[in-house]
Amino acid sequence: MTHLIAPSVLSADFANLQRDVEMINASQADWFHVDVMDGVFVPNISFGFPVMEAIKKHAKKPLDVHLMIVNPDQYIERFAAAGADVITVHYEACTHLHRTVQAIHAAGCKASVALNPHTPAALLKDILGDLDMVLIMSVNPGFGGQQFIPNTLHKVRELRAMAALIKPDLLIEVDGGVGLHNTAALLQAGANVLVAGNAIFAAPSPTAMITELKQVDGSAVQV
Ligand SMILES: O=C(CO)[C@H](O)[C@H](O)COP(=O)(O)O
């Protein structure tokens, strides 16, 4: 499969949310990336169910919901009911990760686990076979517009090698500081879902930027 592009709604203009949702609908983007922050797991608060339901009402593509919250188990069913197609929980926020992943699947969603920049990919070895996706954070979570942490490339490569033995069709998503400058390298390292916020919404034409990100060919790059 070619790679997927998931614009991060966190960087949208919330006063013109429907306009930005329609822009994503009409673009070559594949998913909507929806960042939920609770002010506890991360030092920022974004939005919750009402905003997500408003996005769902107009979105014509899957909602990829990234929960940057403590105790995500409490809210899995509600996020599924609010329209999530993919639910990502943080490794660092889950005591019984296997149970949480089971709950996500039972709610009818794809299950994904996110790793903060300091968390090693190897910690997912025993649960990789149960996951649909791993989200590698390439910035410290909480804010859009930060600089990409270069060690992420190494982590993506390591995870892709591990997945080749355990879960060859694993989706690997990278989130934070992604743009045209590092897309080819990330694809070549083994990522196949790229989240971009600032790179898309601060571009002169967000639609054209999505097309450019979608057209990047990772096969020609050596990293
Ligand atoms: O999860 C996030 C922040 O925690 C955002 O999805 C991410 O930062 C995307 O924004 P940008 O592409 O501007 O870095």
From TrEMBL:
Write the record's keywords in alphabetical order, separated by commas.
Isomerase
The main enzyme category here is isomerase
EC number from the UniProt entry: 5.1.3.1
Q: Does the keyword Isomerase apply?
A: yes
Q: What is this protein called?
A: Ribulose-phosphate 3-epimerase
Organism field: Pedobacter africanus
